[in-house]
């Protein structure tokens, strides 16, 4: 099989990916995954145009991938990409039925999201290298991590933040700060916009960073880079990979016993707010979840936390030695 990145897709598939990027604001890694998924489908049936594929052929392709040890989660994403393409494309054709519509994949075991405890989060964000650093990159990193935890943003939402709403030279902001109101407005998955509060610590970190941000900004920057809240070493809008690497370095230095990536701070935000407020709808709104069932998984995290407290505190919670021998 050829490389997914070099394989030329049919014009219809290229237009769908372009639509997801431009109109739905899908992240680049999601688009790359969907491209690979579409290539898989084409390579299963190289002599059959996409519009002629049948439901049976889609089922057969999924079965073959399952036999190749693709995980249920990967199969679900691949089928979602196929189904999404046909759903977008069919109204423009004479095809009447989405061939991927009722195809099922093996059930995914729903795992709990990885979240830090409140103590671990404080150890991470209050580490001396973060709170005492004075270099531009130090202040930038402190602001980035505080915003991730304060507002539960996705990584793509964080890097898309602008200092204010901007519409200039063909560029228009999709996400921006409003420090006067103590909030951020972001465009998330599916092109949905939401406004989320910023905590006092995040506002203070942002204020310190924005005061020296100009030191990383070259005079010849594009409007897009001039608008960006967070900049890389070369003065361009920071790349998602840089955020990931900087957070990983901090987690290693702080000794937090977990693989900390930006989404862990999002999970931690949701878990900690839910533990304190017990308001599932509010957490759903702040996370930008379309379905409350997605948010409900954090109630399991909350119960897990309560169960641990119970086991440690209740005099009759633990088994004695006689029980263990039964």
Automatic annotation (TrEMBL):
Active-site feature positions: 154, 189, 263, 266, 289, 298 (o-(3'-phospho-dna)-tyrosine intermediate)
Highest taxon of the lineage: Bacteria
Q: Which GO terms describe its molecular function?
A: DNA binding; tyrosine-based site-specific recombinase activity
Q: Where is the Core-binding (CB) domain?
A: 7-90
Query: What processes does the entry annotate via GO biological process terms?
Result: cell division; chromosome segregation; DNA transposition
Which segments constitute the Tyr recombinase domain? 111-311
Give the UniProt entry's GO cellular component terms. Answer: cytoplasm
Coiled-coil portions: none
Instruction: Quote the InterPro entries the UniProt record gives.
Output: CB, DNA_brk_join_enz, Integrase-like_cat_sf, Integrase_catalytic, Integrase_recombinase_N, Integrase_SAM-like_N, Recomb_XerC, Tyrosine_recombinase_XerC/XerD
Record carries keyword Cytoplasm:
yes
Q: Which PROSITE patterns match?
A: CB (PS51900), TYR_RECOMBINASE (PS51898)
Record Pfam families: Phage_int_SAM_1, Phage_integrase
List the keywords (alphabetical). Cell cycle, Cell division, Chromosome partition, Cytoplasm, DNA integration, DNA recombination, DNA-binding
Q: What main location does UniProt list?
A: cytoplasm
Q: Where in the cell is it found?
A: Cytoplasm
For this chain, the family text in UniProt reads: Belongs to the 'phage' integrase family. XerC subfamily.
Function description: Site-specific tyrosine recombinase, which acts by catalyzing the cutting and rejoining of the recombining DNA molecules. The XerC-XerD complex is essential to convert dimers of the bacterial chromosome into monomers to permit their segregation at cell division. It also contributes to the segregational stability of plasmids.
Tell me how this protein assembles: Forms a cyclic heterotetrameric complex composed of two molecules of XerC and two molecules of XerD.
UniProt protein name? Tyrosine recombinase XerC
The organism named in the record is Advenella mimigardefordensis (strain DSM 17166 / LMG 22922 / DPN7)
């Amino acid at each position: 099989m050829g490389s997914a990145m070099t394989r030329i897709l049919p014009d219809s598939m290229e237009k769908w990916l372009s639509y997801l990027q431009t109109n739905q604001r899908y992240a680049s890694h999601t688009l790359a995954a969907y491209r690979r998924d579409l290539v898989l489908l084409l390579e299963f049936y190289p002599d059959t145009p996409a519009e002629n594929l049948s439901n049976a052929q889609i089922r057969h392709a999924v079965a073959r991938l399952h036999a190749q040890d693709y995980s249920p989660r990967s199969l679900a994403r691949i089928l979602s990409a196929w189904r999404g393409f046909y759903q977008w494309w069919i109204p423009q054709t004479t095809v009447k039925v989405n061939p991927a519509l009722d195809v099922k994949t093996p059930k995914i075991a729903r795992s709990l999201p990885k979240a830090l405890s409140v103590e671990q989060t404080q150890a991470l964000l209050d580490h001396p290298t973060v709170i005492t650093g004075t270099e531009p990159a130090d202040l930038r990193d402190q602001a980035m991590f505080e915003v991730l935890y304060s507002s539960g943003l996705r990584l793509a939402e964080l890097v898309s933040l602008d200092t204010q709403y901007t519409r200039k030279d063909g560029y228009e902001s999709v996400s921006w700060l409003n420090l006067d109101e103590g909030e951020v407005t972001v465009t998330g998955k599916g092109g949905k916009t939401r406004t989320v509060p910023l905590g006092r610590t995040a506002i203070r970190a942002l204020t310190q960073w924005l005061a020296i941000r100009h030191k990383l900004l070259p005079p010849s920057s594009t409007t897009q880079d001039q608008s960006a809240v967070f900049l890389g070493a070369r003065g361009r809008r920071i790349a998602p990979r840089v955020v990931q690497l900087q957070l990983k370095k901090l987690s290693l230095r702080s000794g937090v016993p977990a693989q900390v990536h930006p989404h862990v701070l999002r999970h931690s935000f949701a878990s900690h707010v839910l533990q304190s407020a017990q308001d599932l709808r509010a957490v759903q709104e702040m996370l930008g979840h379309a379905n409350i069932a997605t948010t409900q998984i954090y109630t399991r995290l909350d119960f897990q936390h309560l169960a641990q407290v119970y086991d440690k505190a209740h005099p009759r919670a633990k088994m004695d030695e006689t029980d263990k021998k039964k």
